[in-house]
Amino acid sequence: MSLVIKVPEVGESISEVTIAQWLKEDGASVEMDEVICELESDKATFELTAEQAGILHHKAAEGDTLAIGAEICEIESNSTNSAKNIENQSSKPSKSTTEPSQTMEKIIMRVPEVGESITEVTIESWLKEDGAHVALDEAIAEIGSDKATFELAAEVGGILSIIADEGSKLGIGDEICSITPVAGSVEAPSENASSMAQPVAPQTNEGTYASGHPSPAAAKILAEKNIDTNNVTGSGVGGRITKADALKAQKAEISTNSAKNIEKEVSPTPFSRSEERKRMSSLRKTIAKRLVAAKNQTAMLTTFNEVDMKPIMDIRKKYKDAFKEKYEVGLGFMSFFTKACCMALQEWPAVNAQIDEDQVLYHNYCDVSIAVSTPKGLVVPVIRNAESLNFEQIEKKIIELATKARDGKLTIEEMTGGTFTITNGGIFGSMLSTPIINAPQSAILGMHNIVQRPVVIDGEVQVRPIMYVALSYDHRIIDGRESVSFLYRVKELLEDPTRLLIGI
User: Fold this and answer.
1) Long-range contacts of the stretch 495-503 (C-beta < 8 A, 24+)
2) Which of 39, 147, 225, 393 has the highest Cβ tally under 10 A?
């Protein structure tokens, strides 16, 4: 029986998704709850799993944009066929010379979890050929991710059957190869036994598959320096060229070139002109798409002001130890800015509103989005009803959301529905910027670094810690009076934090 899988509901206000990539090919066999593809919305990327086991049939291609509820694929139940396939496979002769009666059930090896936030890997090279005999824990392939390259070891001794070719990109849990165990071959043959069985012969480039074949790291070095692999001797297993071999060859090449340059009285080039291409991640594509849309679809304008941070810094200096001892969380600048913005938003509701077709939707609450930079890109988790929270609750919520963001554990709900955004470029050293609105919101506040600057106070020049602040807003619903007044109100509250406590 066939089961049609449709695009699920993935969050509030999300009406369509894009197929980022299929993790299982059309016609492939899938297991129940196995990840079959990655979908991305304008807010996040998530995985789609198989609702039953069977044969997968695509109904949409990678890059297609589908509405919620649209058909995305079909899974044909293969309960009957799978039983026949098992019978047929068991009746087929094995590739090894071992008798069929001596073989056991085939072991499927899948891509293991290799680290946090890594969702796919690439097969850099196979160290054993298809149909070759492998020993338990023997390295059979090199697999690369966006963070590191590692070796895949055989989970059992037997006959190797390669499922995915070199260069293939696979998701975590995808099938990579299978090993058919053979009786008496589970353990690796001892070195003494093999040395007694045959004399040791010198390695040649034609001796084994690995002989003369560079590892990914070594191949990159050799390619950059245009060094022929035939001129490099491998010291790795089976004569494989390691990174150390490549570096040694590079030094030899530099020495040779230096000698030639001395003879010609020409100095060597002291820099590299190598280039590297990397595929743009789905999250980065989504961020780029949203930023361009916000720039093109809003009448965006930015107004600036400056804030004397000395009053806040004096409060933090005086109470930070007592605050941390009581609440077990530090007293930062973000809680002051969040409280000030919430108070100003309630006084200037247009800054907290958004355009909904031909109407303006005013929010009677403040859901403040906090921009967080992660290794994969910028995300904006939301602090719900921030106007009702105190300093301790705001600080704890910011730490909770920032930690989840950097660990890649934010949910769709935690990134949906903000009414106003605060971004802090000052932590990276930014002096001044014009932040882009986080649509469909209508305004965003940009914080910057704090610098000691000379200012005039009561007719005297004093050196004060000054921060420039910027408010980018949609001029279609926020006028100059409202935007400037809002930003000045934030400045007023920050320069006299007592106002935050008594509400004036």
Assistant:
1) 495/307, 495/308, 495/311, 496/311, 497/311, 497/312, 497/315, 497/336, 500/336, 500/339, 500/340, 500/343, 503/343
2) 39
